[in-house]
């Protein structure tokens, strides 16, 4: 069929009602958002953002309502989609922006693709990776992996991806989203090492839309976390309290989930796998810890400083 590109859409969307099909690759995926309110009678008040790209650039795509339970889990980072009968809307200005792995990629920020059950009823097809043709010009998924030795030199709020061997995982804890509110964020702390430093990555992992992964992080698993943000205490001793926290677009993977993921081709991931082959499992097992209370950042040693 006659296809259009994201670049053409941005130039012609105001003058059209019906759009030609789009062929795009998913580069980023947000957590699933529930926006239900007691007074609004919506059957499935869900929404999820994706960043999709073709040869012309990258644009946001929004999956709405009952399409979320049907499609959210199938649309992985790297998945190629054929979209027909979609709507185009002006962008929502306050949404979070992931940091693209390819800094040269053009971003179309004024409009977004809207996928709905009706008005118009979107038709979504997933194209198997083995049938994707190079002449379609779809970009590859690119990452920004860092090693633990590189972390100390990175600025606050820098976006990165990490891989490590889990040595500690804390219990799940809850924090109120808003003071006096009823909603909570669920999170847990983890440590992961990659052999490039004596220090581990300290990871604050909020529950993403992957409960099957979040609940099964345990010592000795290979953990990959994407779109993490650097948090450093810029006040006292900057190096002592540097850690990474998840963002709205973070994805988490553990042993058993890595097969077929685009990051398996990344050089730093391959280097990490080589390093793990030189390690004795029994030695590492002795150093692992699970559960318990983990106060972080740690309080000062004496009450006067506190």
From TrEMBL:
GO molecular function, one term: single-stranded DNA binding
Pfam families cross-referenced by the UniProt entry: RADX
Coiled coil ranges: none
Gene3D superfamilies linked: Nucleic acid-binding proteins
Protein name from the UniProt record: RADX protein
Gene: Radx_1
Native species: Cochlearius cochlearius
InterPro entries recorded: NA-bd_OB-fold, RADX
């Amino acid at each position: 069929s006659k296809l259009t590109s994201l670049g053409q859409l941005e130039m012609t969307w105001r003058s059209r009602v019906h759009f030609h099909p789009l062929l795009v690759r998913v580069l980023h995926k947000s957590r699933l958002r529930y926006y239900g309110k007691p007074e609004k009678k919506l059957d499935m008040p869900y929404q999820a953002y994706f960043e999709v790209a073709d040869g012309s650039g990258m644009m946001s795509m929004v999956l709405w309502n009952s399409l979320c339970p049907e499609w959210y889990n199938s649309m992985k980072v790297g998945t190629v989609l054929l979209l027909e009968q979609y709507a185009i809307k002006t962008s929502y200005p306050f949404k979070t922006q992931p940091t693209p792995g390819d800094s040269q990629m053009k971003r179309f920020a004024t409009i977004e693709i809207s996928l709905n059950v009706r008005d118009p009823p979107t038709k979504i097809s997933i194209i198997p990776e083995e049938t994707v043709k190079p002449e379609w010009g779809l970009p590859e998924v690119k990452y920004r992996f860092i090693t633990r030795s590189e972390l100390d030199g990175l600025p606050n709020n820098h976006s990165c991806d990490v891989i490590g061997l889990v040595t500690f995982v804390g219990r799940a804890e809850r924090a109120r989203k808003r003071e006096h509110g009823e909603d909570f964020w669920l999170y847990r702390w983890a440590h992961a090492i990659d052999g490039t430093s004596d220090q581990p990555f300290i990871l604050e992992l909020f529950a993403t839309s992957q409960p099957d992964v979040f609940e099964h992080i345990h010592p000795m698993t290979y953990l990959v976390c994407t779109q993490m943000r650097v948090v450093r205490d810029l006040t006292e001793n900057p190096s002592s309290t540097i850690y990474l926290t998840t963002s709205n677009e973070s994805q988490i993977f553990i042993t058993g989930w890595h097969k077929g993921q685009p990051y398996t081709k990344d050089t730093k991931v391959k280097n990490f796998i080589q390093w793990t082959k030189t390690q004795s499992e029994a030695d590492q097992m002795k150093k692992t810890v699970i559960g318990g209370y983990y106060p972080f950042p740690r309080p000062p040693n004496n009450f006067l400083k506190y």
